[in-house]
Amino acid sequence: MAPYLESVKSFADVTVTDAGVDTLEFLEAATGLVGLFDLLGSPAFIVVQKDIKGNITKVRARYDAAPDKSATLEQLVENEKGEKKRTATEGLMWLIRGLSFTCKALQNAQANPKEEKLSLAFTKGYEDSLKTFHGFMVKQVFAIAMTSCPYRTDFFTKLANDPNGGPSVPDDKLTKDLDKWLAGLENIVQRIETFYAKGKHGEGF
User: Is residue 10 part of a domain?
Assistant: First the structure.
Protein backbone atom coordinates (compact mmCIF):
# COMPACT_ATOMS: atom_id res chain seq x y z
CA MET A 1 0.00 0.00 0.00
CA ALA A 2 0.90 3.67 -0.40
CA PRO A 3 -0.80 7.04 0.03
CA TYR A 4 -4.07 7.03 -1.94
CA LEU A 5 -3.04 8.98 -5.04
CA GLU A 6 0.12 6.87 -5.36
CA SER A 7 -1.80 3.60 -5.10
CA VAL A 8 -4.33 4.15 -7.91
CA LYS A 9 -4.09 4.98 -11.59
CA SER A 10 -4.37 8.71 -12.14
CA PHE A 11 -6.93 9.99 -14.61
CA ALA A 12 -4.09 12.20 -15.85
CA ASP A 13 -2.36 9.02 -17.07
CA VAL A 14 -5.35 7.65 -19.00
CA THR A 15 -4.58 7.69 -22.71
CA VAL A 16 -6.78 10.17 -24.58
CA THR A 17 -6.29 10.59 -28.32
CA ASP A 18 -8.31 11.81 -31.28
CA ALA A 19 -9.75 8.29 -31.41
CA GLY A 20 -11.08 8.57 -27.87
CA VAL A 21 -10.55 7.60 -24.23
CA ASP A 22 -8.80 4.27 -23.67
CA THR A 23 -11.47 2.01 -22.14
CA LEU A 24 -9.32 -0.26 -19.97
CA GLU A 25 -7.19 2.57 -18.60
CA PHE A 26 -10.30 4.58 -17.82
CA LEU A 27 -11.92 1.65 -16.02
CA GLU A 28 -8.75 1.13 -13.97
CA ALA A 29 -8.73 4.77 -12.89
CA ALA A 30 -12.46 4.74 -12.16
CA THR A 31 -12.08 1.60 -10.05
CA GLY A 32 -9.35 3.32 -8.07
CA LEU A 33 -11.63 6.28 -7.42
CA VAL A 34 -14.11 4.04 -5.58
CA GLY A 35 -11.67 3.76 -2.67
CA LEU A 36 -11.72 7.52 -2.22
CA PHE A 37 -15.11 7.24 -0.54
CA ASP A 38 -13.65 4.91 2.09
CA LEU A 39 -11.45 7.80 3.18
CA LEU A 40 -14.54 9.92 3.81
CA GLY A 41 -15.30 7.47 6.61
CA SER A 42 -19.09 7.47 6.42
CA PRO A 43 -21.35 4.50 5.60
CA ALA A 44 -23.68 7.03 3.97
CA PHE A 45 -21.36 7.02 0.95
CA ILE A 46 -21.85 3.29 0.38
CA VAL A 47 -24.73 4.11 -1.98
CA VAL A 48 -22.38 6.26 -4.08
CA GLN A 49 -19.73 3.54 -4.17
CA LYS A 50 -22.29 0.90 -5.10
CA ASP A 51 -23.60 3.01 -7.96
CA ILE A 52 -20.14 3.70 -9.37
CA LYS A 53 -19.09 0.05 -9.03
CA GLY A 54 -22.27 -1.13 -10.75
CA ASN A 55 -21.74 1.16 -13.71
CA ILE A 56 -18.07 0.19 -14.01
CA THR A 57 -19.23 -3.44 -14.17
CA LYS A 58 -21.66 -2.65 -17.00
CA VAL A 59 -18.99 -0.96 -19.11
CA ARG A 60 -16.42 -3.68 -18.42
CA ALA A 61 -18.93 -6.41 -19.35
CA ARG A 62 -19.41 -4.79 -22.72
CA TYR A 63 -15.66 -4.52 -23.24
CA ASP A 64 -15.19 -8.18 -22.33
CA ALA A 65 -17.96 -9.20 -24.72
CA ALA A 66 -16.65 -7.18 -27.67
CA PRO A 67 -13.05 -6.01 -27.02
CA ASP A 68 -12.34 -5.44 -30.71
CA LYS A 69 -15.18 -2.91 -30.82
CA SER A 70 -14.55 -1.28 -27.45
CA ALA A 71 -10.96 -0.02 -27.42
CA THR A 72 -12.16 3.49 -26.56
CA LEU A 73 -15.23 4.59 -24.65
CA GLU A 74 -16.50 6.35 -27.75
CA GLN A 75 -16.09 3.25 -29.90
CA LEU A 76 -17.82 1.12 -27.27
CA VAL A 77 -20.86 3.40 -27.24
CA GLU A 78 -21.01 3.75 -31.03
CA ASN A 79 -20.91 -0.02 -31.50
CA GLU A 80 -23.71 -0.60 -29.00
CA LYS A 81 -25.94 1.96 -30.71
CA GLY A 82 -28.07 -0.45 -32.71
CA GLU A 83 -28.78 -2.82 -29.84
CA LYS A 84 -32.04 -2.97 -27.93
CA LYS A 85 -30.84 -2.44 -24.34
CA ARG A 86 -27.56 -0.47 -24.61
CA THR A 87 -26.64 -1.41 -21.05
CA ALA A 88 -23.05 -0.16 -21.26
CA THR A 89 -24.10 3.15 -22.83
CA GLU A 90 -26.47 3.81 -19.96
CA GLY A 91 -23.91 2.61 -17.42
CA LEU A 92 -21.20 4.89 -18.79
CA MET A 93 -23.61 7.83 -18.80
CA TRP A 94 -24.30 7.40 -15.07
CA LEU A 95 -20.67 6.60 -14.32
CA ILE A 96 -19.58 9.88 -15.89
CA ARG A 97 -22.20 11.72 -13.85
CA GLY A 98 -20.89 10.12 -10.66
CA LEU A 99 -17.32 11.00 -11.59
CA SER A 100 -18.38 14.55 -12.38
CA PHE A 101 -19.86 14.86 -8.88
CA THR A 102 -16.67 13.60 -7.29
CA CYS A 103 -14.51 15.87 -9.44
CA LYS A 104 -16.53 19.01 -8.75
CA ALA A 105 -16.70 18.29 -5.02
CA LEU A 106 -12.94 17.91 -4.69
CA GLN A 107 -12.27 20.90 -6.94
CA ASN A 108 -14.46 22.96 -4.61
CA ALA A 109 -12.41 21.72 -1.67
CA GLN A 110 -9.17 22.59 -3.45
CA ALA A 111 -10.45 26.06 -4.28
CA ASN A 112 -11.34 26.77 -0.64
CA PRO A 113 -8.46 25.40 1.46
CA LYS A 114 -9.49 27.33 4.58
CA GLU A 115 -13.03 25.91 4.65
CA GLU A 116 -13.04 23.03 7.13
CA LYS A 117 -16.60 21.89 6.39
CA LEU A 118 -16.06 19.47 3.52
CA SER A 119 -19.83 18.99 3.38
CA LEU A 120 -20.11 22.41 1.72
CA ALA A 121 -17.77 21.39 -1.11
CA PHE A 122 -19.57 18.09 -1.66
CA THR A 123 -23.03 19.64 -1.49
CA LYS A 124 -22.07 22.22 -4.12
CA GLY A 125 -20.54 19.45 -6.24
CA TYR A 126 -23.77 17.46 -6.01
CA GLU A 127 -25.91 20.47 -6.90
CA ASP A 128 -23.77 21.12 -9.98
CA SER A 129 -23.83 17.53 -11.23
CA LEU A 130 -26.05 14.65 -10.10
CA LYS A 131 -28.88 16.49 -8.34
CA THR A 132 -30.71 17.46 -11.51
CA PHE A 133 -31.02 13.79 -12.51
CA HIS A 134 -32.30 12.48 -9.17
CA GLY A 135 -35.81 12.10 -7.79
CA PHE A 136 -36.90 13.11 -4.30
CA MET A 137 -35.91 9.92 -2.47
CA VAL A 138 -32.41 9.73 -3.97
CA LYS A 139 -31.85 13.41 -3.22
CA GLN A 140 -32.61 12.69 0.43
CA VAL A 141 -30.08 9.86 0.49
CA PHE A 142 -27.42 12.15 -0.94
CA ALA A 143 -28.35 14.94 1.46
CA ILE A 144 -27.60 12.58 4.35
CA ALA A 145 -24.31 11.57 2.75
CA MET A 146 -23.28 15.20 2.31
CA THR A 147 -23.87 16.01 5.97
CA SER A 148 -21.75 12.99 6.89
CA CYS A 149 -18.60 14.40 5.28
CA PRO A 150 -15.61 14.64 7.62
CA TYR A 151 -13.72 17.83 8.30
CA ARG A 152 -11.24 18.83 5.63
CA THR A 153 -8.20 18.26 7.85
CA ASP A 154 -9.23 14.70 8.68
CA PHE A 155 -9.92 13.77 5.06
CA PHE A 156 -6.75 15.28 3.64
CA THR A 157 -4.69 13.66 6.37
CA LYS A 158 -6.05 10.26 5.30
CA LEU A 159 -5.39 11.18 1.67
CA ALA A 160 -1.75 11.94 2.48
CA ASN A 161 -1.05 9.04 4.83
CA ASP A 162 0.34 5.62 3.95
CA PRO A 163 -1.97 3.06 5.66
CA ASN A 164 1.07 0.80 6.18
CA GLY A 165 2.93 3.43 8.16
CA GLY A 166 5.21 4.74 5.41
CA PRO A 167 6.00 8.44 4.98
CA SER A 168 3.09 10.80 4.38
CA VAL A 169 2.87 12.96 1.29
CA PRO A 170 3.88 16.60 1.99
CA ASP A 171 1.03 19.12 1.67
CA ASP A 172 2.47 20.85 -1.39
CA LYS A 173 2.97 17.56 -3.24
CA LEU A 174 -0.51 16.35 -2.28
CA THR A 175 -2.02 19.56 -3.64
CA LYS A 176 -0.08 19.26 -6.88
CA ASP A 177 -0.89 15.56 -7.35
CA LEU A 178 -4.58 16.03 -6.57
CA ASP A 179 -4.86 19.00 -8.93
CA LYS A 180 -3.29 16.90 -11.70
CA TRP A 181 -5.60 13.93 -10.94
CA LEU A 182 -8.66 16.20 -10.99
CA ALA A 183 -7.61 17.96 -14.20
CA GLY A 184 -7.30 14.59 -15.93
CA LEU A 185 -10.68 13.52 -14.59
CA GLU A 186 -12.35 16.78 -15.61
CA ASN A 187 -10.94 16.49 -19.13
CA ILE A 188 -12.38 12.99 -19.58
CA VAL A 189 -15.76 13.89 -18.06
CA GLN A 190 -16.15 16.93 -20.31
CA ARG A 191 -15.07 14.97 -23.37
CA ILE A 192 -17.57 12.15 -22.81
CA GLU A 193 -20.37 14.56 -21.85
CA THR A 194 -19.81 16.41 -25.14
CA PHE A 195 -19.71 13.10 -27.04
CA TYR A 196 -23.03 12.02 -25.54
CA ALA A 197 -24.66 15.38 -26.24
CA LYS A 198 -23.53 15.53 -29.88
CA GLY A 199 -24.43 11.93 -30.60
CA LYS A 200 -27.63 11.99 -28.51
CA HIS A 201 -26.41 8.76 -26.90
CA GLY A 202 -28.26 9.47 -23.65
CA GLU A 203 -31.69 9.54 -25.24
CA GLY A 204 -34.10 6.86 -24.14
CA PHE A 205 -32.76 6.47 -20.60
Answer: no
Residues 80-103: tens digit of each pLDDT: 998 889 999 999 999 999 999 999
- Structural domain count, the chain: 1
Q: Nearest Cα to 160, choosing from 152, 204, 194, 31?
A: 152
Residue ranges of alpha helices (H) inside 35-86 are 36-39, 46-65, 73-80
Tell me what pLDDT residue 1 has: 53
Domain assignment present for residue 11? The answer is no
Please give the helix or strand (H or E) that residue 31 lies within, else none.
helix 23-34
**CATH code of residue 47:** 1.10.3520.10
| Angle in degrees, CA 37, 72, 132, rounded to 5 | 45
Helix, coil or strand: residue 22: strand
Enter the pTM of the model.
0.94
